[in-house]
Amino acid sequence: MSQEIQPQATQLQPFSQACENNKVPILAVLKSAFANTTRVLEIGSGTGQHAVYFATNLPQLFWQTSDQAEYLEGIKARCLLQGHQLGINNLGFPITLDVTAPWPVNGTHIDAVFSANTLHIMSKSMVEAFFNGLGEYLPQLNTLCIYGPFNYQGHYTSDSNRQFDHFLKQRDSESGIRDIEWIIALAQAQGLTLVEDIAMPTNNRLLHFKHLLA
Fold first, then answer.
1. Residue 8 has pLDDT above 60, yes or no
2. What pLDDT was estimated at residue 12?
3. Given pLDDT bands bounded at 50, 70 and 90, which one contains residue 14?
4. Are the CB atoms for 9 and 80 separated by under 8 Å?
């Protein structure tokens, strides 16, 4: 880790069943997508479950966790406890990252970004800030992988996604499942090209973008 691991974790670790359900199929894609990656920034690490699992199974790279400030204690607790138990040395304690504020990554060689189940939680302006931040703060970015539900040509891919979108909008009118065409356009504006759109469990997708040299 970026700091010495201590075995005790004082904060109750948050848990997501969805992370447990999707981590294996996501890893199957990341093994190829991140094969030549040295340092991954995870935006929106949530419970930290993905971070611990992917760092354990992708030992050739360093996995840097991040999230908004209120989630950092839970992520750090998981990194401390499970990181010690598993002997992980390629997992970074979480940094505070708000996509709408300056990103604390100056001078850090980050060549890949991973984010799961975040874009439909963000407002549209935050999604735009997410992609603008990739271009502004990560000049060495080569690979981007995004997991979550997406619409195609304005249409839901399943009834469950339609219901989920309605739930999101009732909770926060600024959130919702995003159109993949818009996401591709935002990525292209930062020099990132969609190279894979992979079907995942429960009507989710994994979008794999690359910075393709001219």
1. no
2. 64
3. confident
4. yes
Total number of domains constituting the chain: 1
Structural domain containing residue 156: 17-211
Residue 208 CB neighbour total at 10 angstroms: 21
CATH number (domain holding residue 163): 3.40.50.150
Does residue 123 come out as left (phi exceeding 0), alpha (psi in the -120 to 50 range) or beta?
beta
At 86 the pLDDT is 82
19 against 156, higher pLDDT: 156
Residue 201 belongs to a domain: yes
Q: Round to the nearest angstrom and report the end-to-end CA distance of the chain.
A: 36
Phi and psi torsions of 177, nearest 5°: -65, 130
Q: For residue 63, tell me if it sits in a domain.
A: yes
**Cα dihedral angle (36, 42, 48, 54), rounded to 10 degrees?**
-10
**Mean pLDDT calculated for residue range 21-34:** 97
Contact 131, 207 (CB under 8 A): no
Whole-angstrom Cα distance, residue 17 to residue 168? 19
In this predicted structure, the answer to whether residue 209 has a pLDDT above a threshold of 60 is yes
Residue 7 falls within a domain, yes or no? no
Which DSSP string corresponds to 148-182? E-EEBTTB-SSHHHHHHHHHHHHH-TT--PEEHHH
Within 10 Å of residue 140's Cβ, how many Cβ atoms?
12
How many Å apart are CA 175 and CA 166, to the nearest integer? Answer: 10
- Judge whether 6 lies within some domain: no
* Model pTM score: 0.93
